[in-house]
Amino acid sequence: MQARVQAALNKIRPMLQADGGDVELVAVNAGTVTLRLKGACSGCPMSQMTLKNGIERMLKEQIPELKAVESVS
Question: Between 43 and 9, where is the model more confident?
Fold first, then answer.
């Protein structure tokens, strides 16, 4: 599943980079993906909305068995 998540993140990454941010895959455990938002995304007040409404939604569309996406600092 980790390779599938990384491939999906590679499709999302250009949108984040266009705004000065990025995303790093930290772990995949039992259907939960842990990510680290980087660059402009790490300090953005909208980062949780980006994570849940953007990244999580897109990942779940491509990987239906995915349960949740969480972030770490």
Answer: 9
Compute the average pLDDT of residues 2-13: 93
CB 31 within 8 A of CB 64: no
Structural domain tally of the chain? 1
Q: Single out the residue of 63, 68, 72 nearest to residue 9, CA to CA.
A: 63
- 36-65 per-residue burial string, b: 16 or more CB within 10 A, e: under 16: ebeeebeeeeebeebbeebbbebbbeebee
Statement: residue 27 has pLDDT above 90: yes
- Which CATH number goes with the domain that contains 23? 3.30.300.130
pTM: 0.86
